[in-house]
Amino acid sequence: MGLELYLDLLSQPCRAVYIFAKKNGIPFELRTVDLIKDGVSLCHPGWSAVVESRLTASSASCSHWGGRSAPQRCLCPGEPPEEGASLEGRGLHLEREVMFPVFLGEPVSPQTLAATLAELDVNLQLLEDEFLQNKAFLAGPHISLADLVAITELMHPVGAGCQVFEGRPKLAAWRNRVEAAVGEDLFREAHEIILKAKDCPPADPTTKQKLMPRILAII
Known about the structure:
Layout: E1 4-7, H1 12-23, E2 29-32, H2 47-55, H3 70-74, H4 95-104, H5 110-132, H6 145-159, H7 169-182, H8 184-196, H9 205-218
Helix pairs in contact: 1-2, 1-6, 1-8, 4-9, 6-8, 7-8
């Protein structure tokens, strides 16, 4: 039986898995799921480990993805290079403030949005200073799983209309290198849904009523 990947490309970790598998030529059958309708959060702090543990073994020849090098394999947002430097839970996830309100057709309060964007700005600076530093990629001279996890996180606020890379030439250059390494077509394909998410119509009243308890539990 071949590899089956159950993915929702609105989810950051799902996009990272999708890009990794496609780029490394790992045969799989895509099973599209809808995590919102299933009542599951679009982000999960443990899913970056799934990317590595389930798929890296299938691309052992591509050592720069993290298959052989322990430092590269361990360097992921949430697994900091230095004590105290962590991106986990610090403003990259905008489901509560942007994506769910769009889905529900509800406005976002200016105070909530301002606080979220301020936290995002702090997070971006942390990514530059503590993770990227002066390297081409987060783990060194070659692209790694850390770059996929981080870029799919950053494309989430981009999909919400935030100009994440504006005024940050170092991050913008890194994003261009990641896109070039992945391939422009694959990068665009993986992020097509999230980049159109803010323009999607809200859920119909029946679906909204059915899912509201689950969404409120998440937010």
